[in-house]
Amino acid sequence: MKGTGRRLYHPFFALRLMRRTLVLYLVPLVQVLFARQWDVLWTALAQDLALFCLMALISYGMLHVSSWELDEDGTLRLHWNLVVSFERTVQASQLAAVQLEQPLIYRLGGASRVTFYPTLLPRGRAVTLCLKNRDARMLADRLMPAPPEEYYHPAGGQRLALVLLGANSLSTLLLVWVALGQGNDAAEQMALSQLDQAVAWAARWLPIGLAWVLTLLTFLFGLSLLRSFSHTVHYAVWRGQGVLASRGGLLLRVERRFRLDRLTCAEVRLSPIARLLRCYPVYLTAGCYSGDAPLFVYRAGQEELIHRLLPGLRLPPNRRLSLDQVQGRSLAMLVPAGGTFTFLVLLLLVASWALPGAIPLLALPAAVSALWLVISFQGFFREGAWPAEGRITFLRQRRLSLHCVCIFSPVVCLQISQSPWAVTQGRANLTFAYPGRLHEKVRSIPLADAQACAAMFERNESHDPNDSV
Question: What are phi and psi of 448, to 5 degrees?
Fold first, then answer.
């Protein structure tokens, strides 16, 4: 292939510096506003203009002393020539994921933001460039081509599930809304009790503050729901030539590409909303990429969709719950949820005697903590790690969700740790350290299961070069 030669970044690359120094322009104006010295307003505006010209000159210089090129071998070279010469290289074989983003203002300016995620670098060390549209698309196609072979379009109920699973604040907002509706009566009762002046003052002004909080939460939830919905517009997932890719979005167009032989792990999250809809989101981690948005959502009974898009994926075994599985397991796994639930139940008992009007306000957090405790009990019975057909799978309970994880990467460090009590019970904590300095801990599992996982990695059976992934 022919090289591109040295090319400059898009002018939006320099605007990032202007955006980060925006506070410098506001300092003179803030001083004038606080001092109310309107006669020096023109002086402050002149200072802002001088600062703007200075930063524009610096940004212009940065734009012309930095460049990039793609050579014949497919190596991306980033150059910096100011005072000292600096060059950084990014090779296609080192990449685990590539992301193309086009916010609305970037589309108006003909620009794209392309981010390269190397396999072994820690999070936050990804390479982000601001290029012209055709250059960004050309780089993605040269470094990680993804011709479509297997397509998947979320639609109907799956698309609705993707929206709801992306708007994580839905259940919290409903609880806050109901609690605030019951909060005024409790505030009035506290005011009528007149225990002291501080309580009466709080009871007078607290409803107004809560109304503002409700307004803010409603506004933020609307933005979250709109953002989640916009991400599902024209959304599609496809696989081709060892690359898994997704594309979609309305206001923010995002395209992600993952090399299947560089995947770190795939994760299915069983949250309460996912169980209610019977639609389960799939998240990917690849190198220093760890996204918060699901790659796709599949319905219960459509597991073949996972195997088409992610061949080689194995999920933890769905074992029946029994007391034999938890014999000797540490009860510390239930302490966070159990402690919170016990504290709120005690508050409810006290409120039923001293302040009955506050019972509805406390009952809703108690219900959430009860749900947390139920899911913690599920994690107490089901959490574990197992070898499964050449892969390591584990199930981990975290807050209100169960995380089912399958490890793809052979570059994983395992740590088995035991407390003196765990030694007597034959239990151990198993910690996985992924590329990108990511860690996951599976708590109080049988020592034999932890040793089986370690033995699989020692024999290097978790990575088969001839595997389809």
Answer: -65, -40
**For the chain, how many residues are written?**
469
Tens digit of pLDDT for each residue in 111-122? 999 999 998 888
- CB of 462 within 8 A of CB of 389? no
Helix (H, G, I), strand (E, B) or coil at 269: strand
Return the structure tokens found at 216: 């803010």
Digit-coded pLDDT (tens) for 154-191: 654 455 555 555 554 444 444 444 444 444 444 444 43
Residue 360 tokens, joined: 């509805």
- Comparing CA positions, the residue from 98, 374, 119 lying closest to residue 245 is 98
Q: Which long-range contacts (CB under 8 A, 24 or more apart) does 176-180 make?
A: 176/213, 176/214, 176/217, 177/214, 177/218, 178/360, 178/364, 179/360, 179/361, 179/364, 179/365, 180/210, 180/211, 180/213, 180/214
Count of other CB atoms within 10 angstroms of residue 387:
18
Which of 282, 280, 245 has its CA nearest to residue 260? Answer: 245
Q: Which amino acid is at 426?
A: G
pLDDT (0 to 100) of residue 100? 94
CB 435 within 8 A of CB 119: yes
- The domain ranges of the chain are 12-143, 262-324+379-458
Q: What is the pLDDT of residue 466?
A: 42
